[in-house]
């Protein structure tokens, strides 16, 4: 899958004088996503599946924001920092140790370091950096809470979690979609923005 699949489905826009610069970044996005997939095929597929879910959910909450190419870039590149995570951690079939988990939790910041030389817009950076923050402030890397977390990142957090739950991981089989929906619902108001959870579950209904 390529970025065009996501942007064509959700009408990503390229308005104003930034149009040419955003278009030129599309190839960079596909190249980085391909690098992730070359390192770990499942993570590479997850980039696009979760981007499609997040775009669909965001369209129901803020249709204008859902068309923004820079937001879609952030959705697709959210896990690009995992390029720097050793395979022994990324593909470990059991629980991570405390030091391994500490390294894994650095991937949002590493992802920003990877994309910064290409001068991605701040909206792209925000999604990459904050998609693991939690509504209750218990996330990482900064412990942001509630509306301190950008809306696009709050939406993506739900889509990201749902796709992860319903996909095979090295340490567990895929969950049934009904079980994943129940877990997403249980996280409303703690892990996730409750309004986003409501919109996401309505989208899946």
Task: Write up what this structure looks like.
With 205 residues, this protein is an all-alpha fold. The chain has one domain: Orthogonal Bundle (Hypothetical protein af1432). It has 12 helices and no strands. The chain has helices at 3-10, 19-39, 41-61, 63-66, 69-76, 87-90, 98-104, 107-115, 122-130, 151-165, 177-186, 194-204. Helix 8 (107-115) runs antiparallel to helix 9 (122-130). The longest helix is centred in the N-terminal third of the chain and has 21 residues, at 19-39.
State the main characteristics.
disordered N terminus, mainly alpha, Hypothetical protein af1432, single chain, 205 residues
Short overview:
With 205 residues, this protein is an all-alpha fold.
**Distance separating the two termini:** 25 Å
Find the CATH topology.
Hypothetical protein af1432
Q: Structural class of the helix and strand makeup?
A: mainly alpha
| Largest sheet data | none
Identify the CATH architecture. Answer: Orthogonal Bundle
Mean pLDDT level? 89
Portion of residues within helices:
55-70%
The number of distinct β-strands equals: 0
Order of helices and strands: HHHHHHHHHHHH
Kindly give the count of domains.
1
Beta-strand share of residues? under 5%
What is the number of helical segments per DSSP (H or I, 4+ residues)?
12
SSE arrangement:
Blueprint (H helix, E strand, L loop, with lengths): L2 H8 L8 H21 L1 H21 L1 H4 L2 H8 L10 H4 L7 H7 L2 H9 L6 H9 L20 H15 L11 H10 L7 H11 L1
Helix pairs in contact: 1-3, 2-3, 2-5, 3-10, 3-12, 5-9, 8-9, 9-10, 10-11
């Amino acid at each position: 899958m390529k970025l065009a699949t996501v942007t064509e489905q959700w009408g990503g826009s390229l308005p104003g004088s930034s149009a040419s610069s955003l278009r030129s970044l599309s190839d960079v996005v596909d190249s980085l996503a391909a690098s992730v997939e070359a390192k770990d095929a499942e993570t590479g597929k997850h980039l696009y599946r979760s981007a499609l879910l997040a775009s669909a959910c965001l369209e129901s909450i803020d249709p204008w924001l859902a068309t923004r190419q820079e937001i879609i870039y952030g959705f697709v590149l959210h896990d690009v920092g995992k390029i720097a995570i050793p395979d022994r951690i990324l593909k470990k079939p059991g629980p991570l140790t405390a030091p391994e988990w500490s390294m894994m939790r650095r991937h949002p910041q590493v992802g920003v370091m990877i994309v910064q030389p290409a001068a991605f817009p701040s909206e792209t950076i925000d999604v990459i950096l904050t998609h693991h923050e939690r509504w209750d402030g218990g996330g990482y890397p900064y412990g942001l809470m509630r509306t301190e977390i950008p809306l696009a990142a709050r939406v993506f957090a739900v889509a990201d979690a749902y796709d992860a739950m319903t996909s095979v991981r090295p340490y567990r089989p895929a969950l049934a979609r009904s079980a994943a929906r129940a877990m997403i619902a249980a996280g409303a108001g703690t892990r996730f923005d409750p309004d986003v959870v409501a919109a996401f579950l309505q989208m899946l209904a």
